[in-house]
Design goal:
Layout: E1 10-12, H1 13-17, E2 29-34, E3 37-51, E4 54-64, E5 74-75, H2 78-84, E6 86-89, E7 94-97
Parallel strand pairs: 1-4
Antiparallel strand pairs: 1-5, 2-3, 3-4, 6-7
């Protein structure tokens, strides 16, 4: 889900485990707050994160249960969108680089 109201990127623990990312003792754990309440997450640095052609390298993500009452694998937040210079075209329902 693309969420301009979210400060950061978060992925569901179940989904992240399928690609081999797991909690390790050196990972930072903290509590985040949102419209759905609070939850504990841990942070990881990933080599690359891409949404279509938009991508960043060496990027920090949060990983949590994401038990919000509906099925969701992850949220792409403002930290990613700003870093890639994303333009969101709501009339076409497209996202692309501002330099395009």
């Amino acid at each position: 889900m693309l969420d301009t109201g979210s400060a950061g990127v978060i992925f569901a623990t179940d989904q992240i485990m399928t690609i081999g990312l797991m909690y390790e003792p050196e990972d930072t754990v903290h509590r985040i707050r949102g419209v759905g309440g609070t939850e504990f997450v841990f942070t990881k640095r990933v080599d690359n994160l891409a949404v279509g052609e938009l991508q960043v390298n060496d990027f920090q993500i949060e990983i949590g249960m994401m038990d919000y009452g509906f099925n969701i694998d992850g949220i792409i937040g403002m930290d990613f969108l700003v870093q890639v210079g994303a333009t969101i075209d709501l009339s076409r329902l497209e996202i692309y680089s501002a330099s395009k």
